[in-house]
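User: I'm putting together notes for a lab meeting next week and I want to include a structural view of one of the chains we've been expressing. I don't have a solved structure, so I'd like a prediction I can at least talk through. The sequence is below, exactly as it appears in our construct file.
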Amino acid sequence: MSDELLVNVSPTETRVAYVENGVLQEVSIERSSHKGVLNQIYKGKVVRVLPGMQAAFVDIGLERTAFIHANDIFSQNPDARGNITQLLHEGQTIIAQVIKNPISSKGARLSTHLSLSARYLVYMPYADHIGVSAKIEDEQARDSLRALLASVIESDEVTLTGGFIVRTVAAGITEATLRSDIDYLTKLWSQLREKMSSSKVPSVIHADLPLSLRVLRDQLRPTIEKLRVDSREAYAAMGEFVQAYDIPRPERIEHYAGERPLFDLYNVDDEIQKALEPEVQLKSGGYLIIEQTEAMITIDVNTGGFVGHRNLEETIFKTNLEAANAIARQLRLRNLGGIIILDFIDMKDPEHRRQVLRVLEKALEKDYAKTSITGVSQIGLVEMTRKRTQESLEQMLCEPCPVCRGRGRMKSSETICYEIFREVLREARAYDREKLIVVAAPVVIERLLDEESANVADLESFIGKSLAFQTESTYSQEQYDIVIV
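Assistant: Thanks for the context. Below is the predicted structure for the 485-residue chain, given as structure tokens.
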């Protein structure tokens, strides 16, 4: 099996699936109705400065004002760095880039440390160093790339000043290709500088490529054997991009014209549906429970139906090993970020604990997002973080349930009946009427007339008023009204 990228394009959305050895690992979705703003550069206005938080709110034309911290503001004055009152004031116009998409109720996160991406390089106008992607691990290759880029920059032909980062896909790049990237970035930066002075406030100065082309720039790594796209128009645009950037092995990119939907080839839609469920089944019979909240992500490991073949400790060890690999995949697939707490099954053997952590670390090395395991707490929980730059798969595809308001639980019909009893008492004391009508969901009315009928009779006797009951099929289980007649 090989690694493949599947690109599904429709008028309403573009979806990209990364399949590794036949198994879905990552999904990216961009909808035409509300595209992400990550990496876009804006001309905005400071609307509020918060000295206590060393931050400010900036209007960049989005629904919610964006947020910028003092540490994310470039300044040539070393004395002003980190001091928001010296860096910004209300009403000031700034040029800033989105480094984190709006998530839930939070606005976009900004930085004035601008960066522009090409196929092999990232250009940073306000930096002064040359870096190499940490995912290029071979030190000799890193030194060679750094020296090659330095020699190109120092030549008389390059007028671009600033810093650069060599991207992962640049392994084995030629000098000519590197010069081509720098020429592109030179033209782009020149255009942006003109826009910065002429554009109104607020406005977009620079928008990133659409997802169908970003996948060529960011994800078409040497290990990818095939990229299949099911849109003829997108395929044509990809062909122009490949030619402009001289992307190696262009034959890897294919137009898929089969009758069967592209994502059905690897059951991608089924895997996406599974990724929206809290429970993840393991092949051994164990399972994970993944809970996503505003504050953090918790993942609980359980043995489930796995009984093992030798002893309890060995069963727990094997379940945790399998869970470590599954957790790394689920973090990528669901795009979970922030603080993550992993509750592995308790292991007595220190060597078993070390091996499980090592397997987890090894599995996380494939993750494009920055991850960090901070250690194991005193009660045995593994604490880690994963960089969050955009909404998770669940946040992107789902919305809070209007019935339970995102709690995932509803009050039982018994609880609602007792709430109704208390409300009837309050209304009976407040109003001198002969009759009260209870309007509620069918399941609640059914319980009032059946299991709670004796309590209803006692309540009527106590308040000296009669009660009538009316079902309302449009009411949720927690909704009810007391009508005074």
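A couple of points you could mention at the meeting. DSSP finds twelve helices and 24 strands in the chain. The mean pLDDT is 91.

User: Perfect, that's what I needed.
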